[in-house]
Design a protein that fits this description.
By secondary structure, this protein is an all-alpha fold. The protein has helices at residues 2-21, 30-56, 65-77, 97-100, 102-124, 128-149. The two termini are 38 Å apart. Heme C is lined by residues 34, 37-38, 41-42, 44-45, 48, 78, 92-94, 105, 108-109, 112, 138, 141-142, 145-146, 149-150.
């Protein structure tokens, strides 16, 4: 049984690769962009959880240098994963206000970029108090953007 499952998943992987291997894409499709931004957002959640555990414990701050660099890079690129026309994808929870109020959206993204920069500076300076404060600003920047520009997740029964 295990062997059959293995062969089946290998076949699926091979088909997926073959479907994309004939030519490089000219640009990402709207579906790809939604997957990219969701991936960036989900990975940011993981980076913040790790940073919180280290900042509020006594682990070495330098362990955060790489994940926080990733967060800064993601913050720089975030607006470009929302080009015009990438809102009309079935499983996207991006609000149309992103595009009708682009200046407001990019101001939120800039707030996020500054907060992640402060996290990076705190890690480089090995300053735990500064990191705790920059972490709080970063979380506030995530929420600030979501409150205006993200359709809230559907409530599950029992929530
Ligand atoms: C400038 C706006 C903005 C900022 C800043 C931002 N987000 Fe988001 N986030 C969004 C939008 C818009 C979506 C919905 C994207 C979509 O579904 O197309 C989203 C979606 C998400 C999701 C759901 C992803 C999925 O798999 O469906 C998570 C989790 C998330 N954000 C976490 C974060 C965290 C954590 C931060 C801060 C570290 C953050 N976001 C910062 C706008 C933002």
């Amino acid at each position: 049984m295990k062997r059959i499952l293995f062969l089946l998943s290998a076949a699926c992987l091979a088909t997926g690769v073959a479907a994309r291997a004939d030519a490089p894409p000219a640009s990402p499709s709207p579906e790809d962009l939604v997957a990219m931004r969701k991936g960036g957002m989900d990975m940011s959640t993981a980076v913040l959880a790790g940073a919180g555990a280290i900042a509020n414990g006594d682990g070495p701050l330098k362990a955060l240098a790489l994940p926080v660099r990733g967060l800064v890079n993601w913050a720089d690129a975030l607006p470009s994963t929302f080009p015009a026309g990438s809102g009309d994808v079935a499983d996207s929870r991006a609000k149309p206000e992103i595009w009708s109020d682009w200046a407001g959206f990019t101001a939120r993204a800039e707030e996020f970029r500054r907060a992640t920069g402060a996290m990076q500076a705190a890690v480089a300076a090995n300053d735990r108090d500064a990191l705790v404060s920059a972490l709080a600003s970063t979380k506030a920047a995530c929420k600030g953007c979501h409150d205006s520009y993200q359709i809230p997740p559907a409530r599950r029964p029992g929530d």
